[in-house]
C-alpha cells in the first residue's frame, strides 16, 4: 500500500510512520524537515504545505492509496492540500481534535455533535485552535472527492511526546523531594497512547474508511493519583506527593492545565473533559494499552535526553508546560503553613 503522510517526523506522525512501515506500506513523508527527523525507509519529500508550488512538486508523478494528514491547522492551507492531492490519492485520513466540538467539554457529545462554525477557506484569523480545526475538517470534506476519515483524539501521550506534558511530570518527579500534586488523587483522567492511535489510524486507512471517530481511551482511566504514582514507580523516585486543594491552588495563582499539566479544577465548563465516549472507535478496534506501559516507555525514551535539552512545549508554539521551582516551593510552603 502506498501511503503519504503529511508531517510524519514528530510524535503522533512519527508513530503513524512506524506503524505503516511495520505493516509493509511504501511511505512518503512531506514536511519542512525543521522539527524532526524522518525515519529510515521512507521517501522524504521536503516542502511547505502552505506553498502551492511545493504541493505540486510533491504530487508530480506520484499516486497514493491513502493520505494521512497529521499537521493541518489552518482551513485554507488544508483546503489547498486537499485540492492538489485530489486525483493523486484514493483516500484521505485527517487527524483532527475533540476541540472541534462547540458544546464540549461543558456537555457530553458523540461523533455527530455540533462543531464550531468556521469556513473551509478561512485563514488563521478566523478563531482559536478548536474553531480552526473545525474549518480544516470542512476543507477536507469540501475539496477531496474520495472517502474521507476524520479522527478526533483527545489527550495523546507516549514516547517522543513533543507537547511536553507527561515529560514535565516525569522530569519533576524524577528530581524527587516534595512534589505539588494538584487537586484530588481520585480525579479521573482520560488519555490515549500515540502508538495505539497510530495502529487504529493505519488500520482504518487500509480499509479506506469513510467515517468519523472520537479516538481517546476509556473514561476515568487512570486517576490523577494513579498516574503520578506510576511515574514515581517508573523513575524509581522517592518523591513525596503533596496533594493541594483546587481552591487553594487557584488562590495562589496556579494556572490550570499548563503550569500543572493536565490539572483542571472541577468546573461546569469542563465537566466532560476526561469523560468523553469513545465507544464507536473502541468497537471498531481502537486499542488501549495499560497506562503503566505508556508511562514506562515514555520514561525509557526521556531519561536518555539530558534534562537541559528536554522540551516542555511544542517547538513551533509559544506554550510552555510546567511550574517554576520557586513558585512550586512557595505554594507548598503556604499550604504547610495554612
Give the low-pLDDT segments: none
Instruction: Assess the beta-strand content as a share of residues.
Output: 15-25%
Q: Please identify which CATH superfamily of the largest domain we are dealing with.
A: NAD(P)-binding Rossmann-like Domain
The helix-and-strand class reads alpha/beta
Put simply, the count of helices is 11
CATH domain fold name of the largest domain: Rossmann fold
> Which sequence of strands runs across the widest sheet?
3-2-1-4-5-6-10
- Helix % is 25-40%
The CATH architecture designation of the largest domain is 3-Layer(aba) Sandwich
Number of domains: 2
Number of strands: 13
Mean pLDDT: 96
Radius of gyration: 20 Å
**What's the overall geometry?**
globular
Under the CATH scheme, which class of the largest domain?
A: Alpha Beta
Terminal residue distance:
63 Å
Organism: Sinosporangium siamense
InterPro entries: Epimerase_deHydtase (IPR001509), Lipid_A_modif_metabolic_enz (IPR050177), NAD(P)-bd_dom_sf (IPR036291)
Pfam families: Epimerase
Protein name: Reductase
What tags apply to this protein structure?
globular; UDP-galactose 4-epimerase, domain 1; 35% helix; 338 residues; Rossmann fold; 7-stranded parallel sheet; alpha/beta; 2 domains; two-stranded parallel sheet
Can you tell me about this structure?
With 338 residues, the chain is an alpha/beta fold. It has two domains: 152 residues, Rossmann fold, CATH 3.40.50.720; 134 residues, UDP-galactose 4-epimerase, domain 1. Helix content is 35%, strand content 15%. It has eleven helices and 13 strands. β1, α1 and β2 form a beta-alpha-beta unit. α2 runs parallel beside α3. The mean pLDDT is 96.
Amino acid at each position: 500500500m502506498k501511503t503519504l503522510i503529511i508531517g510524519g517526523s514528530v510524535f503522533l506522525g512519527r508513530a503513524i510512520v512506524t506503524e505503516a512501515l511495520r505493516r509493509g506500506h511504501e511511505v512518503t513523508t512531506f514536511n519542512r524537515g525543521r522539527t524532526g527527523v524522518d525515519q529510515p525507509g521512507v521517501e522524504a519529500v521536503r516542502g511547505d504545505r502552505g506553498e502551492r508550488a511545493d504541493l505540486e512538486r510533491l504530487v508530480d508523478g506520484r499516486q497514493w492509496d491513502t493520505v494521512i494528514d497529521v499537521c493541518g491547522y489552518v482551513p485554507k492551507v488544508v483546503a489547498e492540500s486537499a485540492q492538489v492531492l485530489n486525483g493523486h490519492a484514493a483516500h484521505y485520513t485527517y487527524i483532527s481534535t475533540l476541540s472541534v466540538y462547540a458544546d464540549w467539554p461543558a456537555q457530553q457529545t458523540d461523533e455527530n455533535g455540533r462543531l464550531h462554525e468556521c469556513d473551509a477557506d478561512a485563514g488563521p484569523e478566523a478563531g482559536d485552535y478548536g474553531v480552526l480545526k473545525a474549518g480544516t475538517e470542512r476543507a477536507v470534506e469540501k475539496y477531496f472527492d474520495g472517502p474521507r476519515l476524520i479522527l478526533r483524539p483527545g489527550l495523546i501521550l507516549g514516547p517522543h511526546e513533543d507537547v511536553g506534558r507527561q515529560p514535565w511530570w516525569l522530569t519533576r518527579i524524577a528530581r524527587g523531594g516534595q512534589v505539588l500534586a494538584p487537586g484530588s488523587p481520585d480525579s479521573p483522567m482520560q488519555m490515549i497512547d500515540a502508538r495505539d492511535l497510530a495502529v487504529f489510524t493505519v488500520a482504518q486507512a487500509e480499509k479506506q474508511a469513510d467515517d468519523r471517530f472520537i479516538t481517546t481511551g476509556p473514561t476515568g482511566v487512570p486517576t490523577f493519583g494513579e498516574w503520578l504514582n506510576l511515574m514515581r514507580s517508573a523513575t524509581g523516585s522517592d518523591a513525596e506527593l503533596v496533594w493541594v486543594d483546587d481552591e487553594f491552588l487557584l488562590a495562589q495563582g496556579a494556572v490550570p492545565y499548563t503550569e500543572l499539566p493536565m490539572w483542571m479544577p472541577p468546573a461546569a465548563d469542563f465537566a466532560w473533559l476526561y469523560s468523553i465516549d469513545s465507544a464507536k472507535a473502541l468497537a471498531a478496534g481502537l486499542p488501549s494499552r495499560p497506562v503503566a506501559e505508556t508511562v514506562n516507555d515514555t520514561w525509557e525514551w526521556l531519561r536518555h535526553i539530558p534534562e537541559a535539552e528536554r522540551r516542555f512545549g511544542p517547538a513551533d508554539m509559544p506554550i510552555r508546560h510546567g511550574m517554576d521551582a520557586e513558585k512550586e516551593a512557595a505554594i507548598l510552603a503556604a499550604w504547610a503553613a495554612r
